[in-house]
Design brief:
Layout (H helix, E strand, L loop, with lengths): L1 H26 L13 H11 L6 H11 L9 H21 L9 E2 L2 E2 L1 H4 L2 H20 L7 H15 L4 H13 L6 H26 L4 H28 L2 H4 L14 H5 L1 H18 L8 H12 L3
Antiparallel strand pairs: 1-2
Helix pairs in contact: 1-3, 1-4, 1-14, 2-6, 3-4, 3-9, 4-6, 4-9, 7-9, 8-9, 9-10, 10-13, 10-14, 13-14
């Protein structure tokens, strides 16, 4: 039974990743879209380099599977997939900018040179800017959903998850923590991580609920699931930074301590951090109790997040 569920989860994860890859390939074409004059070749190449050919596509997967709870993705719904791709475009922008010398100063991402290394810093900045703004273009398009109210809710939610009270604000708190004279306490670290990493993962589940026309209780349940999963994801990521294999992960590891990064692993230690991660996975599972067997794949996603090795 569990093996069948594991196999189903793995199959659907790959299916969504393949579908996202194909649609991103189409969206990031050289052909100018409606209202555009021309797409500069060098910029599009950098955007494609940042977005195609790698990654688990976890955020799109969570969005698609959350929408599937309500039957909104049963027929490989193109609109749901477009929303998932918009979220991935925004996520890819964040990676490009995070890797810049002024931020985390990373040379490797997914086992290959980061965008500013493969191209140059100015191109990386513009590619990130373009991915960010294009994400909202894709999300706001009528092709994503015919109902303007749904599109407004999707765009507003994504803006808040990515903005000053979400991912960008969390990145600022992270940079400030590196320069702080005293280490952050647990509450401050949890707030930072809920914004920097958790906000987009939480939004992925909430966006699926929006697309599925969830009622208030269902939306709250998926929001709680996304919040717990996002927190578990960050702890698992920090554990991997301490214990993971650099070749398997395709990026530099053991860098958090050297940069004075504020993490729950550094505060609590590995054993307690693992215990907290596992409790958060249980919280994510409990949040979906009301959906019954329909939520098995999302529950498996929370377990996957905690136990991944890269």
């Amino acid at each position: 039974m569990q093996q069948d569920l594991d196999d189903d989860f793995a199959r659907r994860l790959v299916q969504v990743a393949d579908a996202v890859e194909a649609l991103l390939d189409s969206l990031l074409s050289l052909q100018a879209g409606q209202g555009e004059l021309v797409r500069p070749d060098w910029l599009i190449k950098a955007m494609r380099y940042a977005s195609l050919g790698g990654g688990k596509r976890l955020r799109p997967f969570l969005l698609v599977e959350s929408a599937r709870l309500f039957g909104a993705a049963d027929a490989a719904d193109t609109g749901v997939l477009r929303a998932a791709c918009a979220l991935e475009l925004l996520h890819c922008y964040s990676l490009v900018h995070d890797d810049l010398p002024a931020m985390d100063d990373d040379d490797l991402r997914r086992g290959r040179p980061t965008v500013h290394k493969a191209y140059d810093e100015a191109t990386a900045i513009l590619a990130g800017d373009a991915l960010l703004t294009y994400a909202f273009d894709v999300m706001a398009d009528e092709a994503t959903h015919p109902d303007p109210a749904v599109r407004i809710a999707l765009v507003a939610g994504l803006a808040r998850a990515a903005g000053p009270g979400g991912m960008a604000g969390g990145q600022m708190l992270d940079l400030m923590a590196e320069r702080a004279l005293e280490p952050l306490g647990r509450h401050d670290i949890e707030t930072l991580q809920a914004m920097k990493t958790g906000a987009l993962l939480r939004y992925a589940a909430e966006a699926g609920a929006i697309l599925g026309h969830a009622d208030a209780g269902q939306f709250a349940a998926l929001s709680a699931y996304g919040k717990a999963l996002g927190a578990a994801f960050q702890i698992a990521d920090d554990i991997l930074d301490e214990q993971g294999d650099e070749a398997a992960m395709g990026k530099r590891i053991a860098k958090d301590a050297g940069r004075n990064k504020a993490t729950l692993v550094s505060l609590l230690g590995i054993p307690e951090a693992i215990a907290l991660r596992d409790r958060l996975v249980q919280d994510a599972e409990s949040a979906l109790h009301g959906f019954g067997a329909r939520a098995e794949i999302l529950i498996e996603a929370a377990r996957f997040v905690a136990n991944r090795d890269r």
